[in-house]
């Protein structure tokens, strides 16, 4: 019985997302595939522990307490704290979205982002995900992922994200060449892969022991200046690695 | 039975903290007050869902997946995203720790922090807490908390945080006067309340409907310039409120 309660709790918490931060109990039940009575009882108990919270208008949300528990011992907290001062400097110089991503399976999860109000369009958000093969951060992480992960991605479907996504990342042979180029050059520039107006530029971020633990990237206007961000990105990535290694 | 499984899961996740990010299964069991077999079984299932993760050396940690779930629908995400550009500007100007805190019961929970490597000492951290009555952020939040929360805090013990904590916040009459002053002036300066070398300066941050939803603060050297940070803090707080109200 214990196992199934844990699964139900996980299904309930997973119904909340950036597009659905607040839901009625009946919506949670439907999305989680649970009887309303069961969902209601578990939501009640999760609210008592502060993991969920009730709005004034009978909606349920993720509780601040769950964020606190997950954040204070987060495995990415050390990385984020080391990266943030360098990301700030980078953001001040580049003036556009600056973000930090880690690999989770076949996707990149963005764990930190700095944005200026007047920056170019950017579809990512904190705690948002993108497939590895269509984003600059994801390509850097894939290039340095274990061989079996690379083979899984290369063997699977490689759908374009938008009509602008080039064949170089949707065909295994092209993607394999691109990944080799990233390992050789130490960066990637993705002009218009996701949006015609923007370019993603990413570099690997190495942890203690030189393994790649994250990707540092900027989203800039898609023009001939995009590649000029590489030296600043590399310098910032070196700084973060130095701080992490000295701890 | 469902209730007790949820409680056990909560107790297991709560054993992890900033000082104990990685624990052995036997340590988790002891801290959570569970039999090792029970804890082991629940940890196993939480790992399967990615809510916990296993290290190479048989330690268990909070999983990136739990952080992602809690973050992507976090009730403070909108606040943090609105505040971050202004916090960056403030941090660039002030050059010291800049932080954003929300009230959780009788404590302030820090949800965002920007720090320069060479900044003054600061005991707070992201997802860290401090009692309301000893920190500049906490005092601002207490001054604008519902009357019953203020009375609870004023009626309870008001322990000093350090030998430097002044009597003005450890005696009900003094604290009541200080809170009235904060409501009148719109800011608080706490010179040496927590550390003799530093001063906390905080202002309220208002959400839609003018209610105070957070405190914006800086931790600066404890000298006669501390109060000079108030105008920059106020301007930043106004900017955040404007962005939140326009959404």
UniProtKB/TrEMBL annotation, chains A, B:
Give the Gene Ontology MF terms in alphabetical order. Answer: DNA binding; DNA-binding transcription factor activity
The HTH iclR-type domain covers 3-64
State one Pfam family annotation. IclR_C
Domain (IclR-ED) spans 65-246
Q: Which superkingdom is the protein from?
A: Bacteria
Say if the entry is tagged with keyword RNA-binding. Answer: no
What PROSITE patterns does the database record attribute to this sequence? HTH_ICLR, ICLR_ED
Q: Which UniProt keywords apply?
A: DNA-binding, Transcription, Transcription regulation
Q: Which SMART domains does the entry mention? A: HTH_ICLR (SM00346)
- Biological process GO annotation list? negative regulation of DNA-templated transcription
- Output this protein's name: IclR family transcriptional regulator
Q: Which organism is it from?
A: Amycolatopsis albispora
């Amino acid at each position: 019985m214990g196992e199934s309660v844990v699964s139900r709790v996980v299904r309930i918490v997973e119904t909340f997302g950036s597009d659905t931060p607040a839901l009625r109990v009946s919506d949670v039940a439907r999305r989680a595939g649970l009887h309303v009575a069961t969902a209601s009882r578990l939501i009640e108990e999760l609210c008592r522990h502060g993991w969920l919270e009730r709005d004034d208008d009978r909606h349920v949300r993720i509780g601040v307490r769950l964020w606190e528990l997950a954040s204070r011992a987060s495995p990415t907290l050390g990385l984020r704290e080391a990266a943030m001062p360098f990301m700030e400097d980078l953001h001040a110089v580049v003036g556009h979205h600056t973000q930090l991503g880690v690999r989770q399976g076949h996707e990149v999860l963005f764990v930190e982002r700095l944005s200026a109000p007047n920056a170019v369009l950017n579809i990512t958000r904190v705690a948002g995900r993108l497939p590895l093969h269509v984003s600059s951060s994801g390509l850097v992480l894939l290039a340095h992922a274990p061989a079996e992960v690379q083979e899984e991605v290369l063997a699977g479907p490689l759908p374009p994200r938008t009509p602008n996504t080039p064949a170089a990342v949707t065909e295994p042979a092209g993607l394999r060449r691109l990944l080799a180029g990233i390992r050789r050059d130490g960066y990637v520039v993705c002009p218009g892969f996701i949006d015609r107006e923007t370019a993603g530029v990413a570099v690997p971020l190495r942890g203690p022991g030189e393994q790649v633990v994250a990707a540092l990237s900027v989203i800039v206007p898609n023009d001939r200046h995009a590649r000029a961000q590489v030296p600043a990105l590399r310098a910032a990535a070196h700084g973060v690695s130095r701080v992490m290694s000295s701890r």
